[in-house]
Structure formats: structure tokens, C-alpha cells
Amino acid sequence: MIKDEILKITESLPPNVRLVAVSKFHPEEALMEAYKAGQRVFGESHVQEMQHKHDALPTDIQWHFIGHLQTNKVKYIAPYVALIHAVDSPKLLAEISRQGIRCGRRIPCLLQLHVAQEDTKFGFTPDEAEAFLSQGEWQSMTGAEIRGIMCMASLTDDEHQIASEFEQAYQFFLHAREHYFANQPTFCECSWGMSDDYPIALRHGATLIRIGSRIFGARQY
Ligand SMILES: *Cc1c(COP(=O)(O)O)cnc(C)c1O
């Protein structure tokens, strides 16, 4: 079943979009089933859990950290994390860069944009993100490489609302690419869309969709 869902989703994606299989709270056997269906990109949102799975599972898996990341935990995942999706403060980016330099790599990351109506969600508002990029200090953080934008839509059934939030993130991405990353072709990722809203995300610029429950079933807490 996991295999069927993976194939169903990946076969329906345009060639420029990648599936991040969100495996948080699911056991290693479930990830291995997805792996055997060809899935190589997995998303986790807790550092310890990702550590355990990284140590136990095949080495060609790309581990994406998709949750809120505490500054003091960056060091644990810095050597191997393939993409940090939710950079939500200048302080976090600075620490990612520091740890990237320590590991001799540039750690790929995305800026998390706050576009949802809920005020509990993390991230830069578009104004804050603009101020951060124009201020320019990020250019000296050479152990981190900003590859694009990430967002989460409001928890609502209102598809127009969700579409307008994804579109807002996409317009910000286009603006940032033109003004700050014109010479950096690696700035190319738009991470939005989850189990219930990814078809909308695909119509509004997504290049990475983060899908958990649709593939693995309800999470076991
Ligand atoms: C859990 C999670 C997902 C996946 O959610 P589903 O609704 O299970 O597909 C995607 N993105 C983030 C940031 C998450 O924490």
C-alpha cells in the first residue's frame, strides 16, 4: 500500500517536482517499504528520530529536515542533512552556516515564509524576509546555501484561501530570485503542499511536495 501510494503520487508529478516522503513517527520498516518503491527523499521533523533513522537505513537516502529546528540541535544533523526546509530566523541561518563551515560543506536550506492566517506558525513574514535579504548579511554565511522558499498554508477547507497563500509564497520566490539570486541557479526550490493540499500547490509553483499521511497512513504518536 505504501508502495502503491508512492507510485501513484510520483507518476502524477511533473518532471520538475520531487516528492518528500514525510516519515516522522513512522517505523523504519515503513520507510524501507517506500525505499523499495524507489523513494529516496525522506522528511523528518525531530532531530533524534532523524538521527536514528539515518544511522539505521541505507546511505543513499536524502534526509530533509522539515520541522522547526532549534539552534542548539543543528550540529547533530549538519554532517549529512540534504535540505533544511524551515529556516525561520537569521539566528538559525547563522548557526547552520557555522556548522556547515565546521563540516566543510554548504548546507542547503530554504527560508520559511509565514503566509498562513494562524499566528502559531513559524517563519518570516514577507516583509521580514525582504528586510533580511536586502540587508545582505546572509551573503557572508557561506556554510549555508539558500535554495528557495518553504511555506505551510492555513489549516482550512477553503481552497481559495490555500491557493492565495501558496501564490503569495510563489510571488515572493520569483521576486527574491530576480533581486537577490539572479546569479545563483541553485535558488530554485518551492516547498509547499501536503497530503490534503498538494494538488493546489502544484498549480502554484511547488517543486517539492511534503506528503506524510497519504503515504504512510495516520501517524502513531
Ligand atoms: C507533518 C508535516 C507534513 C506532512 O503532513 P501530511 O498532512 O501528513 O501530509 C508536511 N510538512 C510539514 C512541515 C510537516 O510537519
In short:
The protein is α/β, with parallel strands linked by helices and about 220 residues long. About 40% of the residues lie in helices and about 15% in strands.
Q: Roughly what fraction of the amino acids lie in strands?
A: 15-25%
The total of helices stands at 9
Mean pLDDT over the full residue set: 96
Low-confidence segments, ≥5 residues, pLDDT <50? none
Helix content: 25-40%
Instruction: Assign the structural class, choosing from mainly alpha, mainly beta, alpha/beta, alpha+beta, or little secondary structure.
Output: alpha/beta
What's the number of extended β-strand segments? 8
The distinct ligands, each listed once, are: pyridoxal-5'-phosphate
What is the rounded Rg?
Answer: 17 Å
- Calculate the terminal CA-CA distance, rounded to whole Å: 21 Å
Largest sheet: 8 strands, parallel
Q: What is the 3D form? A: globular
Task: Give structural notes.
The chain has 221 residues and is an alpha/beta fold. It has helices at residues 2-12, 28-36, 47-56, 74-77, 90-102, 126-135, 159-180, 198-202, 213-216, and strands at residues 18-22, 41-44, 62-65, 83-87, 107-112, 144-150, 189-191, 208-211. An eight-stranded parallel sheet has the order 7-6-5-4-3-2-1-8. α6 packs parallel to α7 (159-180). The model has no long low-confidence stretch (mean pLDDT 96). It binds pyridoxal-5'-phosphate.
